[in-house]
Amino acid sequence: PYVQPESQDSSEKCKCVIPALCAGCKDDDVMSRESSDSIPHMYGCQTHGKYKQYQDILRRYKTWAILVVTIMIVPMGMVIKKTTIDLNWAFQTGTVSLICFYPTVVLSVLWSKTSGYGVIAGNGLGLTLGWFTMLATASTYDGGISTMDNFLKNTVQENSVLVGCCISFGVSLITCVLISLVANWRQTQQEAEDVWKLTLAIDNPMYPWTEQYSRQLKASDIEFNHRPSFKQMHYMFTKARNTAIAGCSIVLLFILVIIPGSLASFPTMDYSTFYNWITFTHVYLFIMSFFVVLGPPVQEVMKVLRHRKMTLKSKQQSVESTPARSQDLPRGVNFSKISRG
């Protein structure tokens, strides 16, 4: 098995009781079920009480945030209708404003050498040059951007949006990579692992590592003391990572190569070709919506069934072990008299 090396720092080994086995948490659960939901519950568990209280505060904030956003949609729609804002223009030009953030976000997650200066510079420069090239391309059309009508019309032309998006994305990516390489070009392998250890240090006492990844760790035959190391996590999720990379590559191949290439072969569509294209688009959207809508509920049902199966298995094992323990007891001894004595 993949054994974690022993650490000399004893503070890395958590000695706290997990919530599932904590007596204080069980008492708090009983009290919370008996109390009213409108009254904030004060937890008595000395280990997990403050974390539960913090989660309750976040849930209340989340509820109010959803309520406020839902209510504000109505006046926002009225303002948009009153000011006659062109939503089509806002969505298309908004792509130029947002696409510069994608490469920096991906690099910050996947590349340990990504620096904050590179992310900030890439986003700012990509956004600025993206809008500049979009306006420059729009000015080449009839009327330019001299009047408001021409501005709204020419800035959403296909070439204007395409050039702006390409420049915004490319400049953001190249700038972030170059500045990050200059800032962290001496980074060693150990320093790269230390960066990933910062994410491993994020642990929720209510859902500790030992419970979250116990099934995956057992399936991968990995031994650990408190929490898995970076190498163990890398080893454990190798198949999942390869599957994600393969799926992402296939999706990008369809979106960036196959579909645009198919459309490029039809510069002018007749009714039949356009009808087939719309049908293909509807089928594709229906399939994607099917997975998006039904995927999470199916996963939750599978988790519930798996948890129920494990619970029944543990109960069965406990029942089977009870007779075995009773058989090991010596015969001819009255334990009731011993306990009374």
Number of strands: 2
What is the rounded distance between the termini? Answer: 50 Å
Please provide the ordered H/E string of secondary-structure elements.
EHHHHHHHHHHEHHHH
How large is the count of helical segments?
14
Shape: extended
Q: How many distinct domains?
A: 4
Structural class: mainly alpha
Keywords: Membrane, Transmembrane, Transmembrane helix
GO molecular function, one term: urea transmembrane transporter activity
InterPro entries: DUR, Na/Glc_symporter_sf
Structure description:
The chain is mainly α and 341 residues long. The protein has 4 domains: 12-82, no CATH class; 86-187, no CATH class; 193-265, no CATH class; 269-317. It is 72% helix and 1% strand. The chain is built from 14 helices and 2 strands. It has helices at residues 23-34, 49-83, 87-98, 101-110, 116-138, 148-154, 158-183, 189-200, 209-212, 214-219, 230-236, 238-264, 271-327, 335-340; strands at residues 2-3, 222-223. The protein has a two-stranded parallel ribbon. Helix 4 runs antiparallel to helix 5, helix 4 (101-110) runs parallel beside helix 7 and helix 5 packs antiparallel against helix 7 (158-183). The longest helix is centred in the last third of the chain and has 57 residues, at 271-327.
